């Protein structure tokens, strides 16, 4: 499956979850529901994937976790916050660099319209 098809499915699933649940819940609720919805669509989804770092050749478990990894290609960082801060985008970009993945989606479910809560991060730049 091509990466644009995967991201299209993720965005559509996020909109469905948001329209059903609305804003204001914990991130963990949206994570579970989005993972379920994506799996129902036949996508491979890993939840809370550990992300160690390598420091001068030494593997260090730093406690980083990717919220969702879809089809081993798209990193998803979920939020349920009043406003996305620059640090949230930097966090996702760091995850992309550490995993050598090309595309990430930052999804903030604490919005009135889900389309306003979607940020795509690719190749070091946000759309």
Characterization of the model:
The longest helix is centred in the N-terminal third of the chain and has 19 residues, at 3-21. The protein has a single domain (3-126), classed as Trna Endonuclease, Chain: A, domain 1 (3-Layer(aba) Sandwich). It starts with a helix and ends with a strand. The protein has 127 residues and is α+β, with helices and mostly antiparallel strands. Helix 1 crosses helix 2. It is globular and about 45 Å long. The chain has helices at 3-21, 27-40, 86-99, and strands spanning 45-50, 53-55, 58-60, 65-70, 74-79, 103-108, 118-122, 125-126. The model has no long low-confidence stretch (mean pLDDT 94). A hairpin with a 2-residue loop joins strand 2 (53-55) and strand 3. The strands form two sheets. It has a six-stranded mixed sheet with strand order 1-4-5-6-7-8, sandwiched between helices.
The proportion of strand residues reads: 25-35%
Count of alpha and pi helical runs: 3
The stretches of 5 or more residues where confidence is low (pLDDT under 50) are none
Q: In the residues, how many domains can be counted?
A: 1
The computed structural class is alpha+beta
Provide key terms for this protein:
127 residues, Trna Endonuclease, Chain: A, domain 1, GxxExxY protein, globular, alpha+beta, 8 strands, PDDEXK-like_dom_sf, GxxExxY, 3 helices
Give a brief description.
Helix content is 37%, strand content 29%.
Summarize the helices and strands and which ones pair or pack.
Blueprint: H1 3-21, H2 27-40, E1 45-50, E2 53-55, E3 58-60, E4 65-70, E5 74-79, H3 86-99, E6 103-108, E7 118-122, E8 125-126
Parallel strand pairs: 5-6
Antiparallel strand pairs: 1-4, 2-3, 4-5, 6-7, 7-8
Helix pairs in contact: 1-2
